Amino acid sequence: MTRNSAKEVGSSDGNKKKGGGGGGGGGGSKKVVISQDKQRIEVQSDDLDLGSNNAVHQEIQTPLSPAPSSPSSPTSSSSSSTTTSAANKPTTKKPHNGLLEHKVFHAENAPSLLSTETTSQNYRGFINLAMLVLFVSQFRLIVENYKKYGILIDITSQYIDWPTTLLLFLTFNIFIIVALAIEWRIQHKDISERQSTIFHVINTSGVLAVPVTLIVATNALPATGLIVLMAAIVLWMKLISYAYSNSEYRVSISKGKPYYEVVKNNDVVLKYPFNLTFRNMYYFVFAPTLVYQLNYPRSPKIRPFWLAKRILELIFYSSLAVFLMEQYMFPTVRNALEPLQKFHLFALLERLLKLSVPNLYIWLIGFYLLFHLWLNILAEILRFGDRHFYGAWWNCTTMDEYWRIWNIPTHNWLIKHIHIPLVKAGVSKIIASICVFTVSAVFHELLVSVPVHTFRAWAFIGMMANIPLIIFTRALFSGSQIGNVIFWLSFCFFGQPLGLLLYYNDYMTQGSSF
């Protein structure tokens, strides 16, 4: 036989047959097929018939030694075809006559799924449930608000005094040009460093004094005062950084160490004094940063479609914020005025909690509008490359972490122009940090008190109250979820709503008096 041939042994009543026959006799016939290439023995037997005419195939997997075969064997093809036919037939496993295998149900230690010892926890279903409950509860408030007030939005409402706003924005150009002129004079040695410092102090003081005076004198609307004063504070910080940085460049040159920032992805490298131009000055004024540098990272190009999307988002979310204020916040604030004045504790708490929800929504929208949309729009137009305007403050577990990363442009300015100079002057880092926080608290108070034409220092007190809260959260809850919960409760659910109620009460009781 050849190598791929098979041996068949048929038996019927003790008689042996060769070839491809199937041992076709009566009962008791048996056929054994030995396949060398498959290395198996297949036994087909009618003796194993258990009350039926179907044969039971038994396969015994066993290694076989290859037997010598003859290429000219006449039975080779016949045996091979028979073996192939037998191999393609479906086989039935022999019924298991023994006991079923015993399954071990408790084989090792295992914690409960909701216990803290569980390494793999998946609460996706609970998160879906929480989102569903949040949606249903907020939708109930929408229905309740509509039944009680109807539609309160008024497209004729005027929140901004546009003539006053535009006049003040145009006035800012005077201080910008004066700052550049001072730098020209000092660069040409027409004035001394001391004189330039005095001139810059006067100029930057005017940036704040002029808008505050006009807002108070004209009894400007709160929204007008807020926008104009925010722009004035930003320009004040920019002009201080401009003067301070140029002074550093002159000191470096005087020491024989010309200084310029080495940044990536920049078109050209600018050096002092070639930066003292209108183009460079106004680029810094509109750039989404408060720290002046000779060079900034630049993006490759302006993306028109991306820019158009951000502008549309800006319009949509601005309209949404106005709608939420008129429809949900203002009615709640007005209804909370009486409990606040009469100090009805539980009624005031109820109003405070009710106000916290729309206040949180508006604050989040405001953050997204300013720090993501507006700053990215400016960065895209100016090809400003570094767009790290905020960190993941929503995951903060301590209050100091929040104040560091929620407004990175302001944090960078405070570090460079207040913290570092104080430390270089010999002040301890703790005292320098408190000074930084105090300056921030003063400007928060200025940003709120002047637009609402009242001064009660609620914002300043609230900011300074963060210092013990910072110590408390850093000592006990740094890195824990409890710290994150304390942050949200203290800041968004009690701090901001309470401050809003206090300032509204002062605004309504004192009118426009300052």
Topology summary:
Layout: E1 6-12, E2 15-17, E3 30-35, E4 40-45, E5 56-61, H1 76-88, H2 124-149, H3 162-187, H4 193-217, H5 222-254, H6 278-286, H7 304-342, H8 345-382, H9 399-405, H10 408-424, H11 429-449, H12 458-464, H13 466-476, H14 481-510
Antiparallel strand pairs: 1-2, 1-3, 3-4, 4-5
Helix pairs in contact: 3-4, 3-5, 4-5, 5-11, 7-8, 7-14, 8-14, 10-11, 11-12
What is the CA–CA distance across the termini? 116 Å
Q: How many β strands by DSSP?
A: 5
Task: From the alpha carbons, calculate the radius of gyration and give it in angstroms.
Answer: 42 Å
Helix-strand makeup class: mainly alpha
Largest sheet: 5 strands, antiparallel
Arrangement of strands in the largest sheet:
2-1-3-4-5
Helical run tally: 14
The chain-level mean pLDDT equals 80
Helix content: 55-70%
Low-confidence stretches: 1-30, 35-87
Note the run of SSEs as H and E. Answer: EEEEEHHHHHHHHHHHHHH
Shape: globular
Q: Approximately how much beta-strand content do the residues carry?
A: 5-15%
How does this structure look, described?
The longest helix has 39 residues. Strands 2-1-3-4-5 form a five-stranded antiparallel β-sheet, covered by helices on one side. It starts with 5 loop residues before the first strand and ends with a helix. It has 514 residues and is mainly alpha-helical. The protein is globular. β3 and β4 form a beta hairpin. The chain has 14 helices and five strands.
